[in-house]
Amino acid sequence: MTATAPSRAVAAPEDVQLKVGGAFSLGKLSEGRILALAAAAAPSDTEDPTDFAVAEALDVRRPDLVVSPADPADVDPATPERRYSVSMVRDFPLKDDATTDIVIMRGALDAVLNKVKISRKNRSLVRRNADWAAKRGWRALAVATALVGEGDTVGEFRLQGFVHVGIEGVSTGLESTGPANWVEVPVWSLSLRFQHWANVATIFTLSCSGYFIMHPFFGPEAHAGEDAGFLMGWVRFIHFAAAAFWVVLGITRVVSAFVARDPHLRWTEWWPLKRKEDVRNLGRVVQHYALIKEEAPVYLAHNPLQQLTYAALYCACGLQMITGFALFGLYHQGNWIWALAATPCNWFGIPTVRMFHTGMMFALWMFVVMHVYLAVRADSLDRHGGISSMINGNVWLRRGAKPVDAPEVG
């Protein structure tokens, strides 16, 4: 992506100092390309401190993306009534040195959202990310584009994302780093990481206590006329308390699948094989895990095999909860709620439900063993920090990498 470098000899007004902390991309464009669009929309004679902040951020973080600001005659500036500008950019550089004429709409997020066609799901994602950034002191500078056709006809505007703009000197925790060969990309939110480790602790507690309930392998034994104590009672209490907490975790995960601001937490990201590309990549991923192929398609979140696995895992955990409450409900048949919960025992028989519940416990532990092995193996081969990502939320990818499920890195 090359173009004539703009002249930036004029300094920004000293009374207002702004900074750019990064960008949120709604589609396949990287943060750097969102910055490039925002910079190209500014007129060459600008005195707006926002334009200087965006241009400086692009120079520092992506010096390889050089764009020229728009001709002032092709810019319709924002007004108090219409809080966005519209710029015609001629020969905007694309990938592989191709160029095209585009129109860039840039301005307040609400104003731009009212002018673009966007799905309810994407609108929700954009607003949640903008609200999250606003709480940390950032303003969302929205960027939308439309292609220019024959006769300078302008197509439909599509929201590409927004740039974080803040006041210089105010730390927000979203400052982006400079150019490098490797980029630390945030993937897993704090809430998901908490749910992950809480699930690990809860499943471990449920498994240990459940195994003891099935086979009490230590503790006092009851003999004729002797009291065996209340050990089993305490173990059952721990098991039931952990089960209740696990249900709460499950409910929060289901809710976040529909309302999370992070697209990687939405239910569509673990719905298996929703695209033809995922179906094609499934075989490639399996071959990579089987050591047949050296490389696999790059996915930022879950690859197709993981999508299938986690979808099955969620179903298995749901069945485990249902059978657990069915067994617990046997002791409370006077309550219609627990009588209803115990219905599977009436359908299939108590021994069958207990056997299924126990077998599912061992199946979950088989998954845990394979999960740990594959996580360590992937981290050793790819060096992307997948294991540490469940602690700090970030993975490492090479700048310019093109994940199937995310914008180009950088």
Give the SSE layout.
Elements: E1 18-25, H1 31-40, H2 49-61, E2 75-76, E3 84-93, E4 99-108, H3 109-113, H4 120-134, E5 139-147, E6 158-167, E7 182-186, H5 190-214, H6 231-259, H7 276-289, H8 304-329, H9 336-341, H10 343-348, H11 350-382, H12 389-392, E8 394-398
Antiparallel strand pairs: 1-6, 2-3, 3-4, 4-5, 5-6, 7-8
Overall 3D geometry? elongated
Name given to the CATH homologous superfamily of the largest domain = Transmembrane di-heme cytochromes, Chain C
What's the CATH first level of the largest domain? Mainly Alpha
- Summed up, the domain count is 2
- CATH fold-type name of the largest domain: Fumarate Reductase Cytochrome B subunit
Mean pLDDT: 81
Task: Give the low-pLDDT segments.
Answer: 1-13
Percentage of residues in strands = 5-15%
Q: Output the structural class.
A: alpha+beta
What is the correct CATH architecture of the largest domain? Up-down Bundle
Give the termini distance in whole angstroms: 13 Å
